[in-house]
Design brief:
The structure holds three protein chains of three kinds. By secondary structure, chain A is mainly α. Helix content of chain A is 73%, strand content 0%. Chain A has helices at residues 2-5, 7-17, 19-37, 73-109, 111-125, 129-140, 144-170, 174-181, 186-222, 234-242, 249-277. The longest helix of chain A has 37 residues, at 73-109. Chain A is globular and about 75 Å long. Chain B starts with a helix and ends with a helix. Chain B is built from 14 helices and no strands. Chain C has helices spanning 47-53, 81-90, 99-102, 109-116, 122-131, 137-142, 150-162, 180-197, 208-214, 232-237, 242-250, 311-324; strands at 5-16, 19-31, 36-40, 62-71, 74-75, 92-95, 168-172, 200-205, 217-222, 225-231, 299-300, 305-306. In chain C, the strands form two sheets. Chain C has an eight-stranded mixed beta sheet, sandwiched between helices. In chain C, α8 (180-197) links the parallel β7 (168-172) and β8 (200-205). Chain C is globular and about 65 Å long. The N and C termini of chain C lie far apart (48 Å). The chains are: A mainly alpha, B mainly alpha, C alpha/beta.
Chain lengths: 286, 320, 326
């Protein structure tokens, strides 16, 4: 309630308790807002060629400088934030639904179903993400769809494994057995009794997968296998900028730092969520 | 005996996973629009060439039979021939493997040297101590800055001030060890930061979890010194998650750190697979993915056996 | 010689985020040398906090607000780290509720016992395991904890606790996790070892009847302090505190056919601060106006310490009931 009525108070109380999480949360909110609405800001046109001189250093007019076509780089970075967040969030959200479902079914029914699902997760997990990226790019060609597929392959085992193991321990517990004895259908048990109890684990995994998704998306775009020009993601902007690293370093550095800040904010928020959901307090050794 | 059975079941499940990985690679290249002939020949091949390739690879046979042929060929070491060099792909990979191995070992050593002590310290330290904050900051930073960003920044910094280290101009260790290290340290460092962050975070959590266990309270109650408790009880009981994450990390490194090898022009398997894609030399991509999965699964089987050595309960239950 | 363990007005609170719970409310307790004392109470009564405070083994969020606890004349709260370790090592021995989690799962039992002995050879370990009545000590030494039964594991824990010949053994619900069939035998071993070494034994338990068989004195805890402390036979036969009586009537085991078990109405209190009245008053069948106004302090009544305004009335009522019996 406090969070909605007095957000600044909630923020200050978080800041006092855990300043690192507060910084992460603030950065994340700012970046997401920039990604969603940034292109309405009066910061210049991302696509106008020769808006200024080529490869101009940062100035009042072009805060992040200009690229090799004379485009202002700041609005391009804002577009890149949008693409990076949207693509990875979309891929992770889809994967989370599928992975949660599979993990729950495997953990609840056990037996052959479980064996198959767990094995598929093992198989997917055994490929380094970027080699899957190369494979999918070879099969389906580079592009945004391929990037989404790679993220899904990399993130699916994360959800399946965690959800499955939590469901396995849950399904032996009294309230599940009680619901079974009372004649609840498996669908009802999974939806009503198991899902609320694994939600915490899924949320933790969600933030973790989102940060990995953003790393994969930008790495693929950096290698030229993800977002294709003239569209921009933070990774493709870094690829573009690194060609001029020695005489226009602001291109690579600005996009690289924004990307790092974005991923770090997701990780910090994820850590805070995890610490809140499962606080660990060891004893002191003295 | 129990350990032997456990090892056997680990081996069996590893083989099943490997089979699944092979099927996935096979499917990914056979089910694409245009078919395998397209992948091998490119879209502009003549019908005659397509037919020839179809006969040679048995493309008119049922998929399952094709898959079996393919598996059998690989068991004989035949991973296909590079379109560009006309040499067996497996030879090319084996020639580049030592470079990737060296990079992986260097990065892992650095990551462990930083990650383990920091993680243990953060896990053991009383809550809210400064060390926890530092470990969280290092952990979040290392896990968040992608290797290509860090690599780009390092390249920028070291191209301005060279500081003895070199970017590019790789030389094999056997020919010029000094030059080799000068070129390998930066890429290894780039990879190690992520690994160190991963290890710090996992170690901290594992240690913290062990610290809540009653046997730690029992050891404190017996008046054991903190360092003794850490050495005798904490490290071993916290080891399994750390072994898991170290194995995963090392497996991915051995699979070819594509981005870093591309960025620093290190002629390892990752760069080779990436260039294979660029040259539309798909046999290389296919073999690269499969070999990476192979290495990864093998390392994981070894780790599974290590778990049973660390925690005797695992071998007893037979569970993984 | 002074008492072995002495708690003086010890107040300990747990400070969770923005919440504050008093676990010990100015608790007084004396444990003499060479005696066995049972701390009895429901969960939340503070018995575990008091027992663990003897070795200053409290969780990190526990704060001592006032009072002190002395072991062999030395305050455990003033002691430095090294002094505290020496005290735990040489003067105290702890036995925990669940032996399966109190033993390191990745280390063989023999090595754990050897470490507790301060690095002893196999022969010493074997002798110690024989003393706790473990059959086949050699097999036990080679075993990992998960290969032992609960009773055997608890005997290993007991062996580790007595390894350094402590002055006091503190056993926190030592048989709660064991099969009923081995409980008494484990308790008997514990009692015999205590008598042999002339150490003191502090048993933390919620089981009054088990206590009756194995302890010389009992301290019944309620609301973070002992409310009735005295020799077992006196206190259990003739409780002078309404809570002790309620606990006796609620406990199964000694009832005669046709007799009802009477559950205690209400639930134990969670104190936010020092109780300024009797903490048991809300659940007490004998409460009067004074009970919710004045905090009863422990006083000597018929060979025991009782913190109740109506201890004499309790005892008189009991006498009256006995006299009217035919």
């Amino acid at each position: 309630m406090n969070l909605i009525l007095r957000p600044h108070r909630a923020w200050f109380s978080l800041w006092r308790r855990d300043s690192l999480s507060a910084i992460g949360l603030t950065t994340l909110v700012v970046l997401v807002l920039l990604g969603l609405f940034g292109h309405y800001l009066p910061i210049g046109d991302a696509t106008r060629i020769a808006a200024g001189p080529r490869l101009a250093p940062p100035s009042w007019r072009f805060p992040f400088g200009t690229d090799e076509l004379g485009r202002s780089f700041l609005p391009r970075v804002v577009l890149g934030i949008r693409a990076t967040f949207l693509l990875s969030a979309l891929a992770v959200a889809m994967t989370a639904c599928l992975g949660t479902l599979l993990g729950m079914v495997a953990g609840y029914f056990r037996g052959a179903t479980d064996q198959i699902v767990a094995r598929v997760a093992d198989v997917l997990f055994s490929f380094p993400a970027l080699l899957i990226g190369l494979l999918i790019a070879a099969a389906a060609g580079p592009g945004e769809t391929s990037a989404v597929a790679v993220i899904a392959v990399a993130a699916l085992p994360l959800f399946v494994r965690v959800v499955r193991s939590v469901t396995l321990t849950l399904s032996g517990r009294g309230f599940i057995v009680a619901a079974e004895v009372a004649g609840a259908s498996p669908l009802r048990i999974m939806g009503v009794h198991i899902l609320p109890n694994i939600a915490g684990a899924v949320v933790v995994q969600l933030t973790y997968a989102l940060s990995i998704g953003m790393i994969i998306e930008s790495a693929l775009s950096f290698l030229g296998l993800g977002v294709q020009p003239p569209d921009a993601s933070l990774g493709s902007l870094l690829r573009q900028g690194s060609a001029y690293l020695t005489f226009a370093p602001w291109l690579a550095l600005s996009s690289g730092l924004v990307l790092s800040a974005a991923i770090m904010s997701v990780n910090l928020v994820g850590d805070a969520v995890r610490d809140a959901l499962e606080p660990l307090q060891g004893r002191s050794l003295t | 005996m129990r350990f032997f059975l456990y090892a056997l079941s680990t081996l069996a499940s590893g083989l099943v996973t490997l089979f699944g990985a092979a099927a996935l690679v096979f499917a990914s290249l056979r089910f694409v629009p245009g078919g395998y002939a397209d992948i091998l020949l490119g879209p502009f091949a003549t019908p005659a060439a397509r037919e020839a390739i179809g006969r040679r690879y048995g493309l008119d046979e049922p998929l399952f039979v094709q898959f079996l042929h393919w598996i059998v060929a690989m068991l004989h070491g035949d991973f296909g021939v590079s379109m560009v060099t006309r040499r067996p792909v497996i030879d090319e990979f084996l020639r580049r493997a030592p470079v990737t191995l060296e990079l992986a070992v260097l990065a892992l050593t650095m990551a462990l040297a930083v990650g383990l002590p920091l993680g243990v310290a953060a896990g053991v330290a009383p809550v809210k101590a400064k060390r926890t904050l530092l470990a969280r900051l290092v952990g979040a930073f290392g896990a968040s800055v992608p290797d290509f960003v860090l690599g780009t920044i390092l390249i920028f910094v070291f191209s301005v001030w060279s500081l003895w280290l070199k970017i590019g101009g790789f030389a094999p260790f056997s020919e010029d060890p000094i030059l080799n290290l000068r070129t390998m340290l930066l890429p290894a460092m780039t990879l190690a930061v992520f690994g160190a962050a991963l290890i710090v975070r996992t170690t901290r959590d594992a240690v913290l979890r062990v610290m809540t266990e009653p046997y730690i309270t029992a050891a404190v109650a017996r008046g054991a010194a903190p360092w003794e408790i850490v050495r005798r009880h904490v490290l071993r009981n916290a080891a399994i998650p750390v072994v898991t994450v170290v194995t995963t990390y090392f497996g991915f490194l051995l699979g070819g750190a594509v981005v870093v090898e591309v960025l620093f022009s290190i002629p390892g398997v990752g760069l080779y697979a990436y260039n294979g894609l660029g040259n539309r030399d798909y046999a290389i991509v296919q073999a690269g993915a499969l070999l990476a999965a192979c290495v990864f699964i093998t390392i994981n089987m070894l780790a599974d056996m290590l778990y049973a050595v660390i925690d005797p309960r695992l071998a007893a239950s037979g569970a993984r | 010689m002074s008492a072995l363990i002495e708690a003086r007005g010890l107040t300990i609170a747990y400070a969770a985020r923005e919440r504050h719970a008093v676990a010990l409310d100015a608790a007084d307790l004396t444990v003499e040398r060479d005696e066995s004392l049972a701390l009895v109470g429901e969960s939340g009564s503070g018995k575990t906090t008091l027992g663990m405070a003897i070795g200053r083994l409290l969780p990190p969020e526990a704060r001592r607000e006032s009072g002190d606890l002395l072991v062999d004349g030395h305050s455990v709260f003033v002691a430095g780290d090294e002094e505290l370790r020496a005290l735990r090592r040489d003067k105290l021995g702890f036995v925990f509720q669940n032996p399966m989690t109190a033993l390191d799962p990745t280390m063989r039992a023999g090595r754990q016992v050897a470490l507790a002995l301060g690095g002893a050879n196999a022969e010493t370990v074997r002798e110690l395991l024989a003393r706790v009545e473990l059959p086949d000590p050699d097999r036990v030494m080679r075993s990992f904890p998960h290969q032992l039964s609960g009773g055997m594991a608890q005997r290993v824990v007991i062996a580790m606790a007595i390894a350094r010949k402590p002055l006091a053994l503190i056993a926190d619900e030592p048989t709660a996790s064991l099969d009923a069939s081995v409980r008494d035998r484990v308790m008997e071993t514990l009692g015999r070892l205590r008598a042999e070494t002339r150490a003191s034994l502090v048993i933390l338990s919620h089981d009054l009847r088990m206590v009756a068989r194995h302890a010389g004195r009992v301290a019944v805890m309620y609301g973070g302090r002992p409310v009735e402390t005295g020799p077992v036979e006196r206190v259990l036969k003739q409780p002078a505190h309404p809570y002790t009586r309620a606990l006796l009537r609620a406990g199964a085991g000694g009832e005669k056919p046709g007799e009802r078990l009477e559950p205690i109405a209400g639930s134990p209190p969670v104190l936010a601060a020092r109780a300024e009245s009797c903490a048991f008053a809300p659940r007490c069948p004998m409460r009067q106006a004074v009970c919710s106004q004045n905090r009863p302090e422990p006083r000597a009544v018929e060979g025991r310490l009782v913190a109740c305004h109506f201890a004499e009335a309790m005892l008189a009522e009991r006498h009256a009931v006995e006299e009217t019996k035919p």
